[in-house]
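Postdoc handover notes: sequence design on the structure in folder B. Input tokens:
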């Protein structure tokens, strides 16, 4: 926990994929209190969630399942409408399934499928800084300028209906950069590594959790 004197404003879910330290550092910089846990009681008690992740979809889902996170997270996020922000792999597991190394079932919080980036004319993985085309500015992008650049590092992307897209980017064609469905949000890029623009996005998410 970042500040034991305050009730955590958000729970960073640690499910054994990737390093969540940079997300916590960003929250500290923004002066938000947080806790890091995968305990079901902590999930039930938390008002909002960040689900980070780096690595493979299959392992991520195995870890979520093995730590008994899926059902309690479904109850709190889908049932009780608590806000959740998925980052990179944490966004991808929100989908119905993924074709990475076979076909694997996701959380299904947002309709769509995780598929390999079309790579006829571009290098995969996609690593680097890109601008976005924003479809839904509220709440994630309200404080972000139209020329803001965000840091990406991924080989697969979230193919979904336009109504669930909050932002797209161009990389060998249009790919999903952010999704939004009710209180569930996801970003393919890393806001915690995207300097001022990323911090602004995280602040907008945190402000929205208090509404």
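Designed sequence:
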């Amino acid at each position: 926990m970042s500040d034991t004197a305050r009730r955590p404003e958000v729970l960073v879910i640690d499910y054994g994929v990737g390093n969540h330290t940079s997300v916590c550092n960003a929250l500290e910089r923004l002066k938000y209190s947080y806790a890091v846990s995968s305990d079901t009681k902590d999930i039930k008690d938390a008002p909002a969630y960040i689900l980070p992740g780096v690595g493979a979809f299959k392992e991520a889902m195995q870890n979520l399942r093995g730590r008994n996170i899926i059902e309690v997270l479904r109850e709190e996020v889908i049932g009780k409408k608590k806000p959740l922000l998925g980052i990179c792999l944490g966004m991808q597991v929100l989908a119905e399934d993924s074709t990475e190394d076979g076909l694997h079932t996701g959380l299904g919080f947002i309709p769509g499928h995780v598929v390999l980036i079309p790579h006829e004319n571009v290098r995969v993985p996609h690593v680097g800084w890109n601008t976005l085309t924003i479809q839904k500015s509220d709440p994630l992008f309200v404080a972000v300028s139209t020329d803001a650049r965000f840091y990406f590092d991924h080989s697969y992307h979230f193919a979904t209906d336009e109504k669930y897209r909050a932002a797209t980017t161009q990389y060998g064609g249009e790919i999903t950069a952010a999704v939004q469905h009710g209180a569930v949000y996801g970003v393919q890029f890393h806001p915690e590594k995207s300097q001022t623009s990323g911090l602004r996005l995280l602040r907008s998410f945190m402000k929205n959790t208090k509404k």
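Context for whoever picks this up: The two ends are 23 Å apart (CA to CA). Don't rerun without checking with the PI first.
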